[in-house]
Hints:
By secondary structure, this protein is mostly helical. Helices cover 54% and strands 11% of the residues. The mean pLDDT is 82.
Amino acid sequence: MSQTFGDMLLSLFVRCSDVALDYDCVIFGMNEKKVMDETIMHLFQYRAINPKEIASEMKSKIKENIYLYRDLVRAQILHEITEIYVTLLPVV
């Protein structure tokens, strides 16, 4: 089953850097449980952290930092528009 752009905008994500990990990785899922499961699996596969050893506070930190992808896209667009505006303002 392929994913449409609309599906992607409705997906959720977590950034590893937001949960106190020192690298840039973004994990996506269609619901909160999927994002949690994928993040825990990622920690196991790439950071050698045993899922049974992940503390409840780390799980809470992951849960607190799950965002809607659409909000990220919106924030990036607003940031780009602001940068363009600030750059062009002196010209106008």
